TrEMBL record:
Zn(2+) binds at C74, C79, H154, H159. SUPFAM superfamilies: Mob1/phocein (SSF101152). It comes from the Eukaryota. Transmembrane segments: none annotated. This is Maintenance of ploidy protein mob2. Pfam families: Mob1_phocein. InterPro entries: MOB_kinase_act_fam, MOB_kinase_act_sf. SMART domains: Mob1_phocein. Keywords: Metal-binding, Zinc.
Amino acid sequence: MNFINKIKSGGKKKDSSSKLYMKEPYISGTLVNGSLKILVTLPKFVDLNEWLAVNTFDFFFYGNLFFGAVAEFCTVKDCPIMSSGPGFEYTWTDSQKKTIKLPGPQYIDYVMTWIQNLIDDESIFPTKAGIEFQKDFQIQIKVIYKQLFRVFAHIYYAHYEKILNLSAEGHLNTLFAHFVCFAKEFDLLDRKEMAPMNDFIVELEASGRI
């Protein structure tokens, strides 16, 4: 899958222990003041699976754009292992059910291609009247959210300086807060999976954004 590249500046890789996104003024950067819960609540007369599908598509689309903005700097050399911080390394399970370690860019390419294929599959994400969602649809949605969370966490961990170069921290913070708020509303992410970003999520909760 091809990703758009917007950043043309170089720069040294961020110290992984500094957590720049946890420092002011970046941590407070947002496009929305107040809680995002009103945006994630299931509207009356809307089918739950429809609501999950529409929002999942949006989070995938915008998450893909954000990774596209830093993809030029997510290389095998700079990101030899898909990670969101010390102690948080991710492996991919291939079609043979074999667990393998992949560099960041290849892992994320696999994730985005896999999600795109699911979204394009009418039997999984139906767009025509009369086609029902599969019984395990919500289980598949949870796997998608787990993988998208890893992409967001990797961007924050490894490429946040590039986001700052674009002055896009407010956009990323808002998208991530919306994503987490939605996931928490419908129990789509395990607490263990959110651990790499737990300090930031706690701050989002304390500030009343989620």
